[in-house]
Specification:
Blueprint lengths: L6 E6 H13 L17 H17 L3 E5 L8 H5 L12 H17 L3 E2 L6 H15 L3 E5 L13 E6 L4 E4 L1 H8 L6 H8 L14 H11 L2 H6 L12 H6 L1 H11 L6 H4 L12 H11 L7
Parallel strand pairs: 1-2, 1-4, 2-3, 4-5
Antiparallel strand pairs: 5-6
GO molecular function, one term: exonuclease activity
Protein name: 5'-3' exonuclease
Function: 5'-3' exonuclease acting preferentially on double-stranded DNA.
Length: 296
């Protein structure tokens, strides 16, 4: 009998839960959101569990980990830049409750999940990707719509991005065809563009029309600033903007770069995240929450 190929599935926990929550809460008042008989909101959680079970059915991973964010004011990036994620709104209470219910649900089932002080879910995922690449070499899939994670792509690491019909399995080949650079250079593009959702400044006045071509031509942020006095004529209109934005460019690159050396993950044994879910226990936990989804 042929041995099953080892395959790792990494879930960006809050990215999935929040998308499930807002998709099922759209246009509804608080009292219209689905709750169970105990009064717990379950609208987003039900959709998240359904999606997770579907992903396991379709992609048959041997290993699984869910990565959660810490509070946004408790991260290393916040220490480096006080305005990091400073424009985000407070989360709705039903979403916070469902996060807490989800953590308890996965704990009860022994499904590996990780929240690590000062690090974000992206960093946990990034370290898993790097460690898996070095120690296992099998396929690795990241489930998230966060395009910051594209910097982690390689020949055996892809990203599952939700689309209107199912997911797109976005690979290294897709990335190279779309952007004409390597995934490691994605952080340099983001350093110039910034990121409104995370309140990362980037270089003021350098938009999408210039950011990608600059990196394609000069390789990275360092390459641009090494040649800033002799830039190609077609970028002359950005000369002053790049000069004024130098400090912000390097700060933004630092903020956008995903850590791949989170100590708690580096010390982990991959045997600890093998999928070993007991079906009857899963059914019991779903019944306890009054969540009805297809299992198996």
């Amino acid at each position: 009998m042929e041995e099953k190929q080892e395959k790792l599935l990494l879930i960006d926990g809050f990215n999935l839960l929040s998308r499930c929550y807002f998709a099922t809460a759209y246009g509804k008042e608080l009292h219209q959101l689905q709750r169970n008989s105990k009064g717990l909101f379950i609208n987003g959680l039900r959709a998240k569990i359904q999606k997770l079970l579907q992903l396991v059915r379709i992609h048959t991973p041997t290993h699984l980990a869910i990565a959660w964010d810490v509070k946004r004011n408790e991260t290393l990036r916040k220490e480096k830049f006080q305005d990091y994620k400073g424009t985000r709104n407070e989360l709705p209470e039903p979403l916070i409750q469902q996060y807490e219910t989800a953590v308890s649900f996965f704990n009860n089932l022994g499904i590996p999940q990780f929240t690590i002080p000062k690090y974000e879910a992206d960093d946990i995922i990034g370290t898993f990707v790097q460690k898996w690449r070095e120690e296992k070499g099998g396929e690795c899939m990241i489930y998230s719509n966060d395009r910051d994670l594209l910097q982690l792509l390689c020949g055996k690491t892809s990203q599952l991005i939700a689309a209107k019909k199912g997911e797109i399995k976005y690979t290294l080949t897709h990335f190279q065809a779309d952007y004409g650079i390597e995934p490691s250079q994605w952080v340099d593009v983001k350093a110039l563009l910034g990121d409104k959702s995370d309140n990362i400044p980037g270089v003021a006045g350098v938009g999408e029309k210039a950011a990608l071509p600059l990196i394609q031509q000069y390789g990275n942020v360092e390459g641009i600033y090494n040649k800033v006095d002799e830039l190609d004529e077609k970028y002359k209109r950005y000369f002053k903007k790049l000069q004024l934005g130098r400090e912000m460019a390097f700060l933004s690159k630092d903020l956008c770069k995903i850590y791949t050396d989170v100590p708690d993950i580096l010390d982990l044994n991959f045997d600890d995240i093998q999928i070993k879910v007991d079906r009857s226990k899963l059914l019991d936990e779903l019944s306890e929450l009054e969540i009805h989804v297809r299992v198996g």
